[in-house]
Amino acid sequence: MRHIKLIVNNDLKNEKEKFFVKKELKCILDLYAKMVSNGTWKDYSFSSGSKEISFDVYQRASDQPVLRILKNLKPSYYNEKFLIKDKNGNILKKSENLNQLIDKTNWNNLRLVK
Known about the structure:
Layout: H1 12-16, H2 22-38, E1 43-48, E2 52-58, E3 67-72, E4 82-86, E5 91-95, H3 98-104
Antiparallel strand pairs: 1-2, 2-3, 3-4, 4-5
């Protein structure tokens, strides 16, 4: 018989914080569907690191995402939990609440730099 490991005290709270929770993901994917129907966005991907999780938006099949919606896992300030960055890494908007960040951003006037 092979060796079987038993994992006790699995901390599910820490696992949930390592990705977008269901409400956050629904909010982001609703925005994505709206922008795809406008013809502005074409593709998306997820990327993760030790300090952040990001939803990357592509305008075409290119190497770099044109926009990134980030969840900062270790924010320095309370209002830096969610960020919107451009392809150069500049912070366009930041907030402590993802719903407010997405609702208050005028996505049609936000320029995608080519």
